[in-house]
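Our platform keeps sequence and structure together, in a single record for each protein. Because each token names a local backbone shape, the row as a whole describes the fold. One such record is reproduced below, unchanged from the form in which we store it:
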Amino acid sequence: MVARLIDDEPEQAYAYARIALRLASRVAAVREAAGFAAYATQKYSEALAEFRAAKRMTGSVELWPVMADCERGLGRPERALAMAGEPEVQKLDKAGQVEMRLVAAGARRDQGQLEAAIVTLQSPELASSSVQPWTARLRYAYADALLAAGREDEAREWFGKTLEADKDGATDASDRLAEIDGVEFVDAAVEHGDADGDVDVDTDAEDDADVEDDLDDDDDDEDDEQDAAEVAAAERATDVAEYYDEDDDEYEPLEQSAAGDDERETGRDKA
């Protein structure tokens, strides 16, 4: 449970580690797990005590670099540097030696010795073109130290090399490169929405308003056609009234008047 939770929920992992310690404090693996859980929650004094206990039980120097980093966490970079010079470092495998170099460089930076930190990281492992599990972290630390020392062009080069080796995205090298180049990424949702990132719906409202306007225009057209029909009917009624003779109470039939109108129109066309 400690291994499962330590990356995402370190406090919960620490709680499980404390229970494990009560149940099996004489098991080296339990002491090591408790040390890493305390380390993840920045309880460096407690972590260092657990790592020392695990080292006594196993006789292994595997935890030496993380023990030195606990000294850094406790504000004692000089002790971390002293541990970097101990014989135990020579017993570490390649990964452990690289980790010890990273801790020593960090201790140099803690003391404000940026150039010394850069020199500490310069090693065959850094210059190697082969990609190992530690390559991305080593290159990143070197690039970060160069940038802190004001050597921006070199830092950019090494952040680029870090990105080439960082296949799992363990570092933020791409963001650091963008920062150096002055590139800013804008969230599209924020750009086109409000400050909270909500999508702007005014466009839909405007579209609805346009549709309503079109419907209103259609209604106006229908009203115009109706008005035109009423005018035509009124004119026709006037034509009928012109043929009505009030004195004789007689009127000329509508069909005849219409025919007469057609004849007059024909005559005008010929003229």
